[in-house]
Give the backbone structure.
Amino acid sequence: MRLRFDAVGLFTKDMARIVAFYRDVMGMETDWDGNAANAELKADGFRLIMYGREDFEKMTSRRFGYPQGTNGTMELAFEAENYAAVDQAFERVTQAGAASVMPPATEPWGQRTCYVADPDGNLVEIGSFNQG
């Protein structure tokens, strides 16, 4: 039996804030209206699922440990059109409240990339291999 990778899920302490970040700042689409314990966001065929930490613990009847502050557990990567768009996106998302982790830089492997942290401290990469 083959399993198909379907989505990435994040557990959050503040659903409204994290959904607003990925919807309003990162441009993902959702129909979440604030009444459900989980939210699904979509962009370019990718699904990002959000679940309130307390709601998830209640559902599973278990307690979990969560990273505090900016954490390096994983990253969510967003592709920009080109180098200039990486710089523009970094400015836009940090002005909208994302925490700067690493300003745009061109790496030796040819990628222009930067990192910010979402409201729960998850790393978000914005990058491009396209100079033009």
In short: The chain has a mean pLDDT of 95. Residues 83-95 form the longest helix (13 residues). Strands lie at 8-12, 38-43, 46-52, 71-79, 99-106, 112-117, 122-128.
